[in-house]
Amino acid sequence: MGETLTYVGKRLPFLKNREKVTGSVKYPSDIQVPGAHFGKLLTSPHAHALIKSIDVSEAEKVPGVVAIITFKDIPQKKINPAIVKWMHHHPEHDLEDMYVVSEKARFIGDIIGAVAAIDEETADRALGLIKVEYEVLPAALTTDEAMAPGAPLVHEEYGSNISLKAGFPGNRGDADSAFLNADVLVEAHVKTSRQHVWPLEPLTCTAEFTYSGELNVWTPAQRPMTSRKQIAELFELGEASVNVICEHAGGFFGEANWSIVPVCIALAKKAAKPVRLQYPPELYVLATPSREVYELSGKVGFSKEGRLMCGALDLLVESGGYFNRSSATTQPAMGAFQALYRLPVYRGLMQAVYTNTPTTGGARGYGEPQGVLLMEHLFDLAAAKLGKDRLELRYQNFKKMGEYAIQLPMETETQERVLRLAAEKFGWKEKEARPKSEGNTRRGIGVANYMDVSGGQPHELNDRHCVMSLEEDGTVTVTQSHPDGGMNLLGSCTQIAAEVLSIPFEHFHHVHGCTKGALNDMGLAANSGLYGMGNLYAKAAAALKEEILKVAARFLEEAKENLDIKDGVVFSSQDPEKKMTLREVGDRSIYNHSGGASHQISVTTGFNPKLNPAAVGTAMADITVDMETGEIKVEKLLNVHDIGRAINPMGVEGQLEGAMLLGYGYALFEDLAIDEKGLVRANNVNRYKMSSTLDLPDMEVVLFEDPAPSGPFGGKGVGMSGVLGVPSAIANALYDATGIWLEEMPYTPERVLAAIKAKKLES
Amino acid sequence: MFRIEPKKSEVVSFIVNGQLKEVILKGPNQTLAEVLRIKLDMTGTKESCQCGECGACTVLVEGEPVLSCSTLAIAVRGKRITTIEGLAEGGVLHPIQQAFIDSGASQCGFCTPGMILMAKVLLDENPEPTEDQIKEHLGGNLCRCTGYVKIIEAVQLAAKTMKSVGA
């Protein structure tokens, strides 16, 4: 690439890591507001029930109880708990169907009321004294039940459990005749499972109204500013009177859950005291959304030469009790089906269906792993039918420069090179040549390509702002509202700013994770962090540099054009005598007694992305299947990811490794396991299996760098990407080994064994 | 009618990171995690699953790893307790802490305190663990961010540094 970079591309320590390894970082769950009362939630034990009456009179008598709220005590406005409507250009698809305390129980765990008391025991005692009279209703626990004629209605006002029917991004061409004309047709169906991303930090909210009527809220907020917006709207407060605080969070993974926040605020308001509310673990997974659950049916047609001619996707979203992100995550799912390969004719339909189960939607990957799963399997099926090599068929159909990724033009064309690199690193040819059977096991390899995004453009507003100031000690302070959720986003952005300004990385200070004092920012979603924030920091740093040089030009009596900054020193390219440190510039600028010229050098910068460079990648899996037990053992997982430019390679690797393991658990065992009564069986980590070091497969990450013209130093998105290909690569490896395509996830030994028996396969 | 019943409180003392601490328990069922986090405001010890399955709340009692969310404070009275706050000495990080930074092993950081204390137990007993031994030893500490790859690298790096400095 030619240029020498000092900070970009370096494996620098993650921001605030010294605080993290010493336990001194404060997460929202660590915050103890003096005098905070203890909140507890009352939730429905029934999957579907009318609430005939709630009698709180006995509970109110318990000494130490300061507030009890039920439906009548909360704002009588429906919301969408995803709180994304301000971002979306088409918010009409984000149905607002949820009261913050429900008027009717729609799933086991639906919030019916809450208590605040002096301590946990008192709150528990009061909770036990609330008398709720339920009229238990028949429940629709599956999409089949919910769509059957005469099904019980989860939300009566829609007159049906199907809340939305939509295409994305719109049909093209005449699908019926294209399918008739195709030489080879393949189709597949899959029902995906309920993975819960389950951040380790317990979900808490602490709310405190100040005596001036302002509201402070501490909670793990992935998007503090939209949280603030929704709180202000619900509780009729000025946006600037609401301060959402989340400096650090113990993981987000896209979930950005919101359901206890307004409950906590309502308790604090009624009690006129600060209240802290926490989900106990067993309630947490009921009341926070799981990964989006889909039934996907796909069909594609190829010409006999192997050209993809047409595709159709029918997608049923199981929303659960509330709509949440049923549309917002389904667009990426449908996008993933058609992102990577040229698909001239397309027909797509999504339908969102309510059921009396916990709400779904919004996990890391945002529907994309499911779309990839289906399309990549269809490619394998087609390759077999066409008698073509699996990789060759993919090379043949990748989009080229000049084509659109989904709705924006591709900025770089890297798919083919990424796949070739993956095949080489993985040893695809050598592995493919091995015998399939070995003792009681069969071997298989699978591939999955993906095209991820670097933000929600053009569907979302992703406007961001920061203030960047030169301090009198020559360091730089950046103020913006983002929390640190563990992605080292602020660290990577600082590397970018340090590079632009040529100021040491260590000379940056950060004010973050607090809406008060910060300018607007739409928050993190859709892989947008590095691209959006990175561009913002690059832009702000360039503007700050300009201002610094302007001031230094006056002090040094030198033309600005001759000045530059290197390692924190302003110098003249013409006169070696003319130089001054940033400390001198910053200090003299503030304490400037001559003629009222005193000012702090500072810029306010905004960045509103218009483009969206596609972050493509390839996952490959090498597995063995025990034909006697049905157990899948993953011998090797590889993910090659086109990051454009790795600002901090250690951080990018970490993002991919973590996401890959999430994808691995999604494929093989993670599932909330809802029983026939609608109860989540896997309701804590002693019942819900998530990957530990003992499950860890051999994982390899390879970074591919081809800078994106619009990215900061060429960087693209990565946060979600590692989840996208892994489940699909494992599924395709299973198919390669056994010819089994499981129509239900996860691929547990029981399911695999049942399929082996059904197919009468032998090792 | 309800009345506020006087609670049976109990005073326990233990040595936390070398300092004697006396705590009035609100009852005999108060956990060590709660005492550390709420009574002593040492929030470096994390609580996640509250059922002894995730390892986030790991502390050392007389050098042995203990799940503080599932341990009654009373059960460790008079004992020496080490929490993550007690690992750095005189502002200098423990080699394991430094290795976690250098390897990028801490993302959100919520599992990090428990993970580092568990690693310390391993390296104190076995200065040159194999990769499998590290995996085996950290099997009860869940991490949702890193995919564990860099955590294992950090423990290997720490083993190297500790060997070279004779820590």
Please tell me about this protein's structure.
The complex is a heterodimer of chains A (763) and B (167). With 763 residues, chain A is α+β, with helices and mostly antiparallel strands. The mean pLDDT of chain A is 95. Chain A has a seven-stranded mixed β-sheet with strand order 3-5-1-12-9-10-11, sandwiched between helices. In chain A, strands 7-15-14-13-8 form a five-stranded mixed β-sheet, with helices on both faces. Chain A folds into three domains: 17-24 and 463-607, Aldehyde Oxidoreductase, domain 4 (2-Layer Sandwich), CATH 3.30.365.10; 28-138 and 198-287, Alpha-Beta Complex (Aldehyde Oxidoreductase, domain 3); 413-459 and 612-763, Aldehyde oxidase/xanthine dehydrogenase, molybdopterin binding domain (Aldehyde Oxidoreductase, domain 4). Chain A has 19 helices and 27 strands. Helix content of chain A is 28%, strand content 23%. Chain B has helices at residues 32-39, 95-103, 112-125, 131-137, 149-165; strands at residues 10-16, 19-25, 58-61, 64-67, 80-82. Chain B has two domains: 10-86, Roll (Ubiquitin-like (UB roll)); 95-165, DNA polymerase, domain 1 (Orthogonal Bundle). Chain B has five helices and five strands. Chain B is of the alpha+beta class and 167 residues long. Chain B has a five-stranded mixed β-sheet with strand order 2-1-5-3-4, with helices on both faces. In chain B, helix 2 (95-103) crosses helix 5. The model of chain B has no long low-confidence stretch (mean pLDDT 94). In chain B, 33% of the residues lie in helices and 15% in strands. Chain B is globular, with a radius of gyration of 17 Å. Classes of the chains: A alpha+beta (763), B alpha+beta (167). At the A-B interface, helix 1 and helix 17 of A face helix 2, helix 3, helix 4 and helix 5 of B.
